[in-house]
Amino acid sequence: MELVAAQVKLKEWYVYPIVLFAPVIEPEGPDSFLVESPEAILRKGNFNKVNWITGITDDDGAFFDVPIMTDKNLTDIVEKDWFDVAPVLFGYQHLPIEKRDSISSEIRESYFDRFEIDEFTWQSFRDLFTDRYWLEAFRNIY
Question: Coiled-coil intervals in this record (predicted)?
Answer without folding.
Answer: none
